[in-house]
Amino acid sequence: MQALEQKILTEGIVLSNHVLKVDAFLNHQIDPVLMQQIGQEFAARFKDQGITKIITIEASGIAPAVMAGLELGVPVIFARKYQSLTLKDDLYRSKVFSFTKQTESTIAISNKHIHSTDKVLVIDDFLANGQAALGLIDLIHQANAEIVGVGIVIEKSFQTGRALLLEKGYRVESLARVESLENNQVTFVR
Ligand code: 5GP
């Protein structure tokens, strides 16, 4: 997706060979026009799949997931990273190792929102080693719902996530595929 790649090149900050900071338009400040285009692109790639729900993880997955939900006309559920006071019982839970924080956390959703008849699209901001996506997939499995695919805003193709998800049979659609962050430069898969 050209507009996204351009935004990454102009406003992304390479923090290390493995971490890209996009606080200017995705992870802190959000560019609504770009988010709308991202939603349209996800919707175009996954239309005609009979999707009934989108699932993401708080906080940075919410903006692109909501825009995709708006385009596809389906509700969006975001998994919470901790058990809040209002989310007590009837939870599906999964453990996720966080790439950025290097700690394990529990993610959870209420079982009220996903059912065995649902066809679910997973959306997240980044794909690194695939742990967040696999955690979300685990929640969908617990609900006996169908996984239609995984939509990622920025995939770091030099990490293992994509291969892991493909190996397990999931469709992966990434809007920007970063080949390398070496020498302080972002290059894309062509
Ligand atoms: P994974 O679970 O695939 O290893 O990592 C994906 C998760 O870690 C995403 O939900 C995202 O929040 C975070 N993440 C991974 N790599 C990056 C990165 O380079 N930059 C930012 N901002 N977040 C990242």
Automatic annotation (TrEMBL):
Reactions catalysed: XMP + diphosphate = xanthine + 5-phospho-alpha-D-ribose 1-diphosphate
Give the main localization category.
cytoplasm
Q: Which InterPro entries match?
A: PRTase-like, PRTase_dom, Pur/Pyrimidine_PRTase, Xanthine_PRibTrfase
In terms of superkingdom, the source organism counts as Bacteria
| Protein localization | Cytoplasm
Ligand binding (xanthine): 20, 27, 156
What Pfam families does the annotation carry?
Answer: Pribosyltran
Q: Which GO terms describe its cellular component?
A: cytoplasm
Q: Which Gene3D superfamilies match?
A: 3.40.50.2020
Q: What is its EC number?
A: 2.4.2.22
Asked if the keyword Metal-binding belongs to this entry, the reply reads: no
- Transmembrane segments annotated in the record for this chain: none
MF terms (GO), sorted A to Z: xanthine phosphoribosyltransferase activity
Q: Quaternary structure per UniProt?
A: Homodimer.
What NCBIfam families does this protein map onto?
PRK09219.1, XPRTase
Q: Which PANTHER family match?
A: HYPOXANTHINE/GUANINE PHOSPHORIBOSYLTRANSFERASE, XANTHINE PHOSPHORIBOSYLTRANSFERASE
Q: Which family does it belong to?
A: Belongs to the purine/pyrimidine phosphoribosyltransferase family. Xpt subfamily.
- What this chain does, per the record? Converts the preformed base xanthine, a product of nucleic acid breakdown, to xanthosine 5'-monophosphate (XMP), so it can be reused for RNA or DNA synthesis.
- What is the official name of this protein in its record? Xanthine phosphoribosyltransferase
The species is Acinetobacter apis
- List the lineage, top down: Bacteria, Pseudomonadati, Pseudomonadota, Gammaproteobacteria, Moraxellales
This protein's encoding gene: xpt
